[in-house]
Design a protein that fits this description.
With 230 residues, this protein is mainly beta. Helices cover 7% and strands 45% of the residues. A hairpin with a 4-residue loop joins strand 2 and strand 3 (48-52). It is globular and about 55 Å long.
Length: 230
Amino acid sequence: MKLLLTLLAISTAVSFAQKAPERTCRILFLDGPDAAPETLHLFDGATSREVDLPRMNFSKIYELRPGNLTLHLLSAPLDDPELVPPGAPSVTVSEGVTDFYLLLTSDPANKVAPVRMQVIKTGSEHLKRGQMLWFNLTKNTIGGMVGSEKLVLNPNSRVTLDPPARGNGNYPVKLSFRIVGKEPLYPLCETQWRHDPRSRSVAFVITERGIRTPRVLVFPDYREEPPKTP
């Protein structure tokens, strides 16, 4: 009996070790207009599920099946890839991408679902706990200090910053921007942010219509540590 239990334990341990890595994503509808939908159906080529499209925080964690995927966002559920409406917003996810953000931006011209989709890889090899991933979606140059880290963001670029502070606590942020074709620096923000070393963060610098000064949006992503295998 003891031998049988030992063999079962070994078999279970091997099966866990051989299990394919989880594939997860979180969704963000960056600066989504009020008139845009708050939910859509995410179709992975086999099944669909209703997903939230939050504007000011990441969605809950969604699990997806392994393999190469083409994801679509639709206004209604679907289970047949042959029935995907022409022009439906889509994005491909390669087999090796096991953790990512699904970034949505507004596309009112798309009559199937008024969004564009973009994949941002976020596995531990791309963005570690405590680090910040910055996207400058403007034509302005952005620069300054984020805690202990110097930030330089060229127009339409991305940068990963090391943790701006140690431990839990506030840190100073002082940023400026340069208008295209002009030399002077203009203040963007001077404030205090909170650092959580357990959380990774994604920051976007965007342009708002009719406003010269860019806007900074920061979204923390905290996840529970997976249980350690004994």
